[in-house]
Hints:
Layout lengths: L7 H7 L14 H12 L10 E5 L3 H11 L9 E8 L1 H9 L14 H24 L3 E5 L6 H7 L6 E10 L13 H4 L9 H16 L14 H8 L23
The chain binds flavin mononucleotide.
Amino acid sequence: MTALLHNETIDVLLNRRSIRAFRDEPLSEETVATIETAAQHAASSQYLNDWSVIRVTDQERKDALAEIGGQPYIATAPALYVFVLDEYRNMVIAREQGVDVDGDAFTLKNSYRFSQAQNDAVLALHAMETAAESLGLGCVILGSILNDIPRLIELFELPKYTYPVLGIAIGKPAQEPALKPRMGRGLQFFDDVYNSDPAFVTRNIAVFNDEVHTYHDLRDPNTPVPTYDVQTANKATDTSVLERGFDHAAAQGFDLDH
Length: 258
Ligand SMILES: Cc1cc2nc3c(=O)[nH]c(=O)nc-3n(C[C@H](O)[C@H](O)[C@H](O)COP(=O)(O)O)c2cc1C
């Protein structure tokens, strides 16, 4: 395998792992300002800046998120953020500019904007994650908070043209999980065209299956982690994810059919 280049940024990225236990220490004001500003510097589709963040400081709301996500450590995170895709602010701006935001020509509510706003939010979240990790903090991204989207919308008073994307918990790590293996690069990177031969997948996933099986998951240290193929098959029929989709987008004013 070709040797990798190293610098501080690369090493932060290569050592990234999810942290799910935090020391009971708040982040300094400078740290908060730094990671929030780093998030703001992420790229933004057509410069619409169409994402916002709820910084969750109120313990009752933290508890509610932990309950929704079914993950108690969420309530103990020193810093907790919920990223939302946000065309509300842009709608207000456009309306002030005289745009008829109730007319058919108003496209901030349509699927392209929705998906690009989601991309923007994810890029910003990832910038925040990397910035936090570069300062010695640990993070975990939280899709589990989407288990009850209507409750999130109510909890954070999310207006029309906003939709929750992901949460992130950040703090000083109180655990040292092993790096989780990644599949061989050849399985994810194709030269010029996609290789859709199923035999290619089956042949090349075998080594990764074994590597994943030997990973020691701190969440359940006494149970061997299933091989990747078994994990994937289980997730392929996990109906709990149906709650986490875009079913509530129409109620938030979006028209994702166009
Ligand atoms: C979009 C997204 C949602 C995630 N949601 C959760 C979550 O709700 N709870 C959790 O404990 N980890 C969550 N994770 C973390 C993944 O489980 C983790 O990244 C993955 O198992 C790989 O492990 P690593 O981050 O330690 O490399 C999420 C990660 C991503 C990218």
